[in-house]
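Here is one such tokenized protein:
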Amino acid sequence: MEQEESSNEQAPEASEPVFGNNILIIHPGSYWIRIGRATDAYPVSVPHVIARKPKQRESSQNFEDKLIIRHGINHPNSNSQKQHALKMVQQAIWAKKTSSGQRRQNVALSEVTNYNDEVQPQTLDDNSGLTWTPNSEQSEFFIGEEALYLDPNESYHIHWPIRQGRFNLHAGVGGSITAVLQDMETIWSAIIETKLDIPSKDFKNYKVVLLVPDIYCRPHVKELMNLVLTRLGFGAAIIHQESVCALYGSGISSACVVDVGDQKTSISCVEDGLSNRNSRLCMGYGGSDVTRCFTSLLQRAHMPYRECQMEKTMDALLLIELKETFCHLDQDLDGTQLLDFHVRYPNSPTIMYQLKLGDETLQAPMGLFYPQLFGIVGEKMVKTQQRNQGDAEDAHDENYLLQTQQQAAKAKALEKAAAENNNQDGNANTNRSTSPTNHHNDIIQAEAPPPTISRRISTSQSLDKALGVDQAILHSIDCCSSEETKKKMYSCILVVGGGLGLFQGAVDMLQYRIQSKMPPSFRAVVDKVEVICKSKDMDPRLTVWKGGAVLSCLDTAQELWIKQKEWKAMGLKVLRERSPFVW
């Protein structure tokens, strides 16, 4: 029987397709999860959400993670902070001239509100064509859009397992790490089985490239590897950072990678396939905050759809669509704009509204450069890579090496001190300290060299206030070690994700703000600050996933695969040894 199992495990390698048809690329995010074969032109993109039927012992009240509502926005100081930031945004918009050299036209708020107050809704169709998710059999769970389009009267808990790039751990229902991992296992396996037509019994024949944020949490990475190789049962896996894969996907060797997602914005300087640890920054804002900011500006402009509520899932989806359709960063689009939009609810008529707006469509995405506009108070908005706290499963990690180095240094210092004592004549004995132990410690302190693998974190760890995207880029580049590297980073800024690069005028706006703020010493040596938002005309939301597909086919990556047997036998040790980034 054992021989039979062994032959079954070796069979997939013998019949392995040449072009990676048995390799899956998994890129989990706060809003989307993208999964596909390495040979696919595009991944399957599904909202990373699950609706679960409550257990009988749980509270009858449904728990729901909101789409664009977040903590920190209802602080007493939120409104005053937003008002102050809005004045700064208005000043910045006025200061940058249009391509014709003119100042933008100021649109009076009263002109906008007076028009919108008179708008009446128009019914286009008696039926929107949308329906609530069918649930006659009272299914245990729904994922993706089926979960979003569940009738609000249904009794289900709504969970988004990742928030701001990390596990969505909280004190509410489904907020434990066990529940989060169970949700991810259910979502991932359901997508692979239904969307990619791969039955779970065949998972062992497939390999996985798993993409994780640049600033990663080691315990979470460990759990993700365990999820892929043990719980889902894939045959092998590689785990890699998003910023490095972004370069693989765009065909660039070195760049400052700016990843603006739905709920986080991360910056990392990548050179020759390695992310500079000191340059990594992660800000706790993204596209959903732009949506919420745009909503408040719409309300200030007396949006004619007055029943709109951010707390309702259908309205939140509408607001996301309005942001993606109307918002921009193009200085040349000034004056009033007459727009129209449709409101569609399942099993209800389609309603059309007209809407007049001024600078609101530009002000909202400018919040990425002035994050105070989002009104988030009381949260740490900037994160950096933290030190390794150690893990009992990996006894020989960097902490072990640091301790052994220190012990070796102490032993060497003690030997040297003993030799000096033996060489001294007897008359010097009277001048010795009455505390020889302290004397030895002093020698140890003087002689012990600094640990060679000590990972010094840059001063960015002490950053307390939120940084705009342009400020974060400048800070990240400034943390690079050499002037030549900094010059490379200024010369190539790669924007990925859907939170910034899809806005019209994003390239020119970011380029202008970086050039105007970069140190004078670099303005003379950097020929041009090049900002790339759509490398190879690719959707910036797919660049990282595409890079994972490229990585899986590289000859140099073939030694990085961690097989299921190796993971079960050695755990974190094999991850530390095979990880393509400094673990």
Residues 398-423 form the longest helix (26 residues).
